[in-house]
Amino acid sequence: MPTRITDDAFEFLIARAGLTLTDAEKAELKTVCDGIAAMAERVRKPRGIMAEPALTYGFAEEDL
Amino acid sequence: MGAAIPTIAEAARQIAAKELSPVELTRACLDRVHALDNKLHAFIHLTEERALADARAAEAAIMAGGPSGPLHGIPIGLKDIVDTRGIPTTCQSKLLHDNIPDTDATCAARLAAAGTVLIGKTTTHEFADGGPSFDLPRPPARNPWNTGHFTAGSSSGTGAGVAAGMILCGIGTDTGGSIRGPAALCGIAGLKPTYGLVSRAGVAPAAFTLDHIGPMAWTAEDCAIMLQALAGHDPRDPASADRAVPDYTRALGGGIKGVRIGVIHHFHETDHKVSDGTQRGITAAIATFRELGAEIREVQLSPLQDWAACGSLISITERAAAYEEWARTRLADFGERVRSRLMLGAFVSGVDYVQAVRRRRELRAELKAAMADLDIVLTAVQPGEAPKIDAVPKWDVFQQPSFMMPFNVAGYPAMSICSGYGEGGLPVAIQLVGKPFQEATVLRIADAFEKATPFRDRRPGIA
Question: What is the ipTM for the molecules in this complex?
Answer without folding.
Answer: 0.90
